[in-house]
Amino acid sequence: MQPGEIEGELPVRELAEIPSIEVISRAAVMLLSAGAEKLGLSAEQPADSPHFDLDEARRIITALAGLITASAEYLGPHAAPLRDGLQALQRAFRESSAYPDPPGQGPGEKYTGPVH
Hints:
- By secondary structure, the chain is an all-alpha fold.
- It has four helices and no strands.
- Helices cover 54% and strands 0% of the residues.
């Protein structure tokens, strides 16, 4: 076996070899997916999902907003779809909340501005 290989699998790329845009994009996609799960978006009835957790979703959405905002200048063509995904999560959060936050105070809105 070579360094960086896992037995029975393809070689694992070294982190130093992965372009920064790919690292940022992968992190954003992971946060998008985790936020959707915490909002129960994969279930027929989101509020009945065993993964539904607004507190956890708030943290994930805020982290995603910070990442996208801080790295926007580097994301190039990836920026718009990631922003769209973030806004969709922010709207889903607002719709899932029994007492929605005032505009501008929802998860991540201090970085993105109000989402309606």
